[in-house]
C-alpha cells in the first residue's frame, strides 16, 4: 500500500539521523571546576547529544586536548573561566569546531558579553538549542584573546592575583588586589601607532578590547559586542590614583571614553611601543610583551549563543 511505503520510508530516514557528539574539556582549577557539571551533561544527553569528556595528558594543555580529539566530534564544550577559553582559542580556530561555553570561572566575562547564563545547566540549554553565531577574536603578537588585552595596571593585577585569591574571594579578590596595586601605580610612556598616526602618551593603563566585559565587572565600551569587527582602544591618562576612583562608575558602564583624561578610539589594528618591555595581559593571563601589535580576527570562531 502507498501509505505503508511512505511510513516505512520516513521510519528509515529517521533511523539515519546522526547523533551529535560533543567533546567536553573542563579546567579543574577553575573556581567552580571541582564542582559537578552533571546537570549540564544531563541537559545535553536528554537533548540527544552524546558527550565525551577528555582530560589533558601529562604535558598537555587544553588546546592540545581539542586538537587530539577533534576528529569525530561536532563541537567542543569548554568548562572554565575566561583564562580557560583563552587557552582553548588556538585549537578552536585551527579545527573550526564550534564552541559551547560552560562558565565555571571567577568572572566569566565572555559569557556575560554574549548573554550565556552563569548556571551550567542553563548554559547547556543554550548549547542544546543549537544557535551558532560568528564571534571575533582579538590577536596580539600572535596570541588570541576573547575579551581584552591590557598593558599597565591590569597586567600588574594579573601578575599579583593568585589562583588561591580568586578561588577564595571570587570577584572581591580583584578589588582587594587592585586597591593595593593602585596605591603604587605610576604613569608610563608609550607610543601608539594606528590608522596612519603615532601618538605619544603618558598612561596608567592601555587596553584593547574585542568583547564588552572584562576584569570581573568592567566594560571596555558601552556599545561594544564580540562580533562588531572592531577593536576598542582606551588609555587611562590620569595623574593621581584618586582620579581613577572617580572614573570607576564610568569604567563599569563603559562610558569612560567621554572623560578628558581618557583617550579612546575604535580601530582594527594598533601597535603599542614602550621604552622597555612591559607584559601584556590577555583575558587575565600574561602572554606576551611590548612592542605589542594588535589586530582583529573577524568571525574567527562560532559559538553557541542564546536565541534572540
From TrEMBL:
Indicate yes or no for the key word Nucleotide-binding. yes
**Which Gene Ontology BP annotations are present?**
phospholipid biosynthetic process
Q: Give the domain of life.
A: Bacteria
List, for all copies, the residue spans of the domain called DAGKc: 17-144
UniProt cross-references to Pfam families, sorted A to Z:
DAGK_cat, YegS_C
State the Gene Ontology terms under molecular function: ATP binding; kinase activity
User: What UniProt keywords are attached to this protein's entry?
Assistant: ATP-binding, Kinase, Nucleotide-binding, Transferase
- SMART domains attached to this UniProt entry: DAGKc
Do you know which PANTHER family this protein is assigned to?
SPHINGOSINE KINASE (PTHR12358), SPHINGOSINE KINASE RELATED PROTEIN (PTHR12358:SF54)
Q: What is this protein called?
A: Lipid kinase, YegS/Rv2252/BmrU family
**The species this protein was found in:** Neomesorhizobium albiziae
Taxonomic path: Bacteria, Pseudomonadati, Pseudomonadota, Alphaproteobacteria, Hyphomicrobiales
